[in-house]
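Final report, Chapter 2: Outcomes

The project's central promise was a pipeline that accepts a single protein chain and returns its three-dimensional structure in a standardized token representation, suitable for archiving and comparison. That pipeline is now operational. To close this chapter, we reproduce one record exactly as it appears in the project archive, with the input sequence first and the structure output second.
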Amino acid sequence: MIKAILFDLDGTLIDSTDLILHSFNYVLKEHLNLEVPEDEIRSLFGRPLFDQMALYGGKERAQELVDKYIEHNLKSHKDYLKEIPGVKETLQGLKEKGYILGVVTSKREESARLGMQICGIEEFFEVFVFSNTVKIHKPEPEPVLHALRVLGLKPEEAVYVGDSVYDIICGQRAGVETVAVGYTPGGRERLRATNPDHWIEKIEELLEIY
């Protein structure tokens, strides 16, 4: 019996695509004089920011680039972050059905909470797992398993909803049910290839499944 529904954040509950692309391009251009194709940046969605920056600046400069990214990203939230239609109503509906809700994201706590607050959804969740909550990140199962330990639940009692291959693989390795969202900013074909348990085109469809 499903008791908890866990969510990725970026691209799943909040539309941060423009914010991420803007911040990514700013940092790489300003500090590495690099211009990276949008599709390439999108393919990295879901991975920890340190790992993303290490791809371009090497591990020796990754933390510096992460700090610059976060600084610029936090300043840009209100200008680039957008709500995803139907998210609040869906979260409210799931709460009314008695589900425990949680967020499991590769984002740092400060920026993740800011995004949730801007979109007015932070209050719906009982457990939060951020990039700085655990040391092992998606696609490894630890972030989802950590949330389950906090809630005192077994894998068969939870679902993980996400928009990237890293989300679905993480959920599968953790042994939970998985839901992929078709409005993903990343590649749909790659996401489908992970064979999630459910596929939805609108967040409201969760209310039909659970």
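Archive annotation: The chain has a mean pLDDT of 94.
This record, like all others produced under the grant, will remain available to the consortium after the project formally closes.
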